[in-house]
Amino acid sequence: MLSELRVRGTRIDRDAGASYTSKTMAATTYSLAEINGMPAAEFAAALGDVFEHAPWVAERAAAGRPYRSVAALHTALMRTVDAAPHATRLAFLRGHPELGGKLARAGAVTDASKAEQGGLGLDRLDEEESARFERLNTAYRERFGFPFIIAVRRHTRASILSEFERRLGNDPDTELAAALVEIGHITRLRLEAKVRD
Prior knowledge:
- By secondary structure, the chain is mainly α.
- It is built from eleven helices and four strands, in the order E-E-H-E-H-H-H-H-H-H-H-H-H-H-E.
- The longest helix has 23 residues, at 172-194.
């Protein structure tokens, strides 16, 4: 596993990002062998929070065990999302919190989202930053019908704002695909904090 990520020339320490997520989200970690050996209901309970407000992803992926690696497990989870009907995927996207939004600032988001946004200080924005995020969140939701989704742990505040503005220019199909790619990055990092090979 790489110890750092590079996003548009910016070095981001992946281990630093992992520390706040692992403390908050992955209080219990499992070996891949444990995950593969669990009854389906326990498997779903153990991994149900990897995908934001979507325990159905883990529930459906339980039948595909055993998985040979964490990467294979993640691929199966993402295929479950991809195979879901369009309306289900759209509802799933709508279940994600806005970045730097009122819910995030109030701490009224999932533990994983709270840790991810908090790790970048999106829950402590000053007035000017807060207003900018609010404007972008509103414009994005009005254009696409779901919140802007990005793997916060792979970015800086500046690169998030840049991506926000760039992606507002996408057509709806392109943006739906982009959001799902970002969910892949988010959930891979979350899964790696919970399950080890």
